[in-house]
Amino acid sequence: MNPSLSIPASSLPKFTRIAGTGSMLPVRRVSNAELAAEMGARGIETSDDWIVERTGIRARYFVDADTGASDLAVGAARHAMDAAACKPEDIDLIILATSTPDMVFPSTACIVQSKLGIVGCPAFDVQAVCSGFVYALTVADAMIRTGTARRALVIGAEVFSRILDFNDRGTCVLFGDGAGAVVLEASDAPGLLATDLHADGRHVGILCVPGTVSGGQVLGDPLLKMDGQAVFKLAVGVLEAAARATLAKAGRSEADIDWLIPHQANIRIMQSTARRLKLPMDKVVVTVDEHGNTSAASIPLALDVAVRSGRIKRGDTLMLEGVGGGFTWGAVLLDY
Ligand code: UT7
């Protein structure tokens, strides 16, 4: 019998809350100028001016050949556990969002579990590309509130540099590597207030890595493909809708949002979302300039940067929003 079914409803936690945040970036920072020079040497034209004007990105971080998503995830997880004052043995659930796992299987979550010295708790990956962290947070929230776990590590970790086509200037300047994590725990006080997740598989082809492994070979193209304008147009519409749906479920309004932490893909998408929600840009956490687009890691990375800089304080209301391949999107509203 599922142990959660034997727990009386009265003793289930009302909420889950973020007990601590953490993040990790690779050592190597690559500026636009450096990337443009590398690409220029191969006859591909780009510039710092174009990248900054069209995306807001000034730099990104790339891993070395020996570092995988699990290494970045472990660093971010340790950071988050320190912040939450908890030890690896206190964790009873690990959910890791990634599209760039260490291996085809087992899950990167299991590899992280082993590297952290945790034994026995459930551990699995969530694959929702750039929406992965809001998906993972929503699943962890549901599992804690139904009594399956009490303290979860929820991680977003990516090494997108491994799947970039450095001959495609329309995509390779956009993405970077990194990881962010939170410790989520059962709580009687808020907490996560509402979540809203969606997917529309009709748009599989506008953002994908179409290759696969078969018979010991890579079949198809294993590098990232994106129709940037199609993604851009869809993103701005669904981000506004997900934010409004989440606010409605929680009985809150835009005016209650202290910080918007959107997926960090393009400053113009963030500006458009903020405008539609009537939020000034000084309420939007922006790290795309320094990190580029780190897919499932971008939201927890931005969250950790804003918490550690002292901008986000306990009691603040946060709107987290993800959007990306699938097509997937979603939002999480929470009191920090
Ligand atoms: O993480 C998942 C979510 N992903 C996103 O949200 C990404 C959404 N899309 C975007 O952010 C934007 O569409 C891009 C940043 C990808 C592209 O910006 P854009 O303003 O839509 O540019 P574009 O694709 O319309 O290209 C405009 C021009 C083209 O040249 P022509 O045809 O006008 O001569 C491109 O070839 O810019 C050219 N271009 C570049 N030029 C210099 C494209 N990439 C580059 C580049 N450097 N890196």
Describe this structure in words.
This protein has about 325 residues and is an alpha+beta fold. It has two domains: about 10-185, Peroxisomal Thiolase, Chain A, domain 1 (3-Layer(aba) Sandwich), CATH 3.40.47.10; about 190-335, Thiolase/Chalcone synthase (Peroxisomal Thiolase, Chain A, domain 1), CATH 3.40.47. About 30% of the residues lie in helices and about 25% in strands. It is built from ten helices and 15 strands. It has helices at about 30-40, 50-55, 70-85, 110-115, 130-145, 170, 230-250, 265-275, 290, 300-310, and strands at about 15-25, 30, 60, 95, 125, 150-160, 175-185, 190-200, 205-210, 210-215, 215-220, 225, 260, 315-325, 330-335. α3 (about 70-85) packs across α4 (about 110-115) and α7 runs parallel beside α8 (about 265-275). It starts with 14 loop residues before the first strand and ends with a strand. The model has no long low-confidence stretch (mean pLDDT about 95). The protein binds oxa(dethia)-CoA. Oxa(dethia)-CoA binds near residues 55, 229 and 293. Oxa(dethia)-CoA binds next to α2, α6, α7 and β14.
